[in-house]
Amino acid sequence: MDLMTLTIEWRQVLFILFCLVTFIQLFYYWFFYSRVSFFKSKAKQKSQQHPVSVIVCARDEAANLAKNLPGLLVQKYSTTHEVIVVNHNSQDETRYLLEEFKKTFKTLQIFNLEQEAKGIPGKKYPLSIGIKESRYEIVLLTDADCVPSSESWIQIMQDGYDENTEVVLGYGAYYKKPGFLNKIIRFETFHAGMQYLSFAMAGIPYMGVGRNLSYKKTVFFRSKGFSSLNHVTGGDDDLFVNKVAGKKNTRVVIDHDAFTLSEPKKSFSEWYKQKNRHYTTSKFYKSSHKFLLGLYSFSHFFFFPLFIISLIFYDWRIVLGVFALRLISQSIIYYSAMKKLNEKDLYQWWFLLDWWMFLYYCIFAFAIWRKPKKNWN
User: Fold this and answer.
1) What distances in angstroms separate CA 54 from CA 8, 38, 131, 144, one per listed residue?
2) pLDDT tens digits, one per residue of 284-318
3) Which of the listed residues 283, 306, 326 is the one where a domain comes to its end?
4) Boundaries of domain holding 233
5) How far is CA 358 from CA 159, 184, 301, in A?
């Protein structure tokens, strides 16, 4: 075999690898992500309003509660409901602020915890207290720095339940702000939302976000709460859903009026720390979930290097044709999915942001193996 033959084979191998990662990408876009893009809520044969307990855990969150708690307390929901705030050892004005709110809003229930739970990092302890003290079977969770996008949030989220449903996943968005950092944060949030919502619709739920998540107390106690997750700082949302959610007991709610909104980080370093905390929990996912997520990330990461190398060393016309297949698929899926998740303004940036994801994987790859910190606020 001469040198020329080896060179040709080497180029062919590279092109075949490029085609392979492209095919993997296309599979995820059309089998999984298209479910969000073309999602339509199923008409329920009968609708029932369930009593709901909304639960918020707070530590030194007086400023956020002053801004966001009214959005929870003025919800238009005719059926019995309560809003529980678990004040976990706050050293600011949280206690006094909540007492003032209580004078006006009788649905507000306050639980003040004065001591740390030794050996239980994160907010799992205060959240467990909130769930145990709640009056109703359906609990709806959000964070102190979040506000519902409408006064119909409770109504729409609880409507996701039927006789077989135990877990309802919602979408937690960020406010639209000027600057490219805001676009990066919101695109990553959109991308993650498109993933976990579409996987759930495909019968493979693997996570939810504590900013907008609901489940029944029955499933919480049946799984012994967070007892198996107490060694992990986070995981009260994504790992708990990873543990209890299944094909038959999980539904998603995609409705602009059922989203929650949060203030995005104002600097890259703050966002970097936030994402590092989040990714330290992903190594505890089920093996099948880690494989599926890892395969997608692997193919996404190597797509661009293989595209550039193939473009240089192989027939550029064929390479561009393969590239165009993914480009067209992405443009269709992203456009519809961004409309569904109310992130349509990002569409004009999606091609640049997709290239940014290559750097994103490089930056956060090592977070999976880092030991999580023991604070949650």
Assistant:
1) 63, 30, 9, 12
2) 889 999 999 999 999 999 999 999 999 998 889 99
3) 283
4) 52-283
5) 38, 13, 5
Q: Which of 283, 310, 330 is the last residue of a domain?
A: 283
What phi and psi values does residue 243 have, to the nearest 5 degrees? -80, -40
CB 82 within 8 A of CB 134: yes
Q: How many CB atoms lie within 10 A of CB 4?
A: 8
Write the CB contacts of 351 (distance below 8 Å, at least 6 apart in sequence).
327
Hey, what are 316's tokens? 């550029």
80 SS3 class: coil
Kind and range of the H or E element at 327? helix 316-340
Query: Helix %, strand %, coil % for the chain, to 5?
Result: 55, 10, 35
Rounded to 5 degrees, what angle do the CA atoms 53, 236, 200 make?
Answer: 85
pTM of the model: 0.91
Q: Same domain, yes or no, for 323 and 278?
A: no
Contact 37, 336 (CB under 8 A): yes
- Kindly report, residue by residue over 27-77, the tens digit of the pLDDT: 999 999 999 999 988 776 666 789 999 999 999 999 999 999 999 999 999
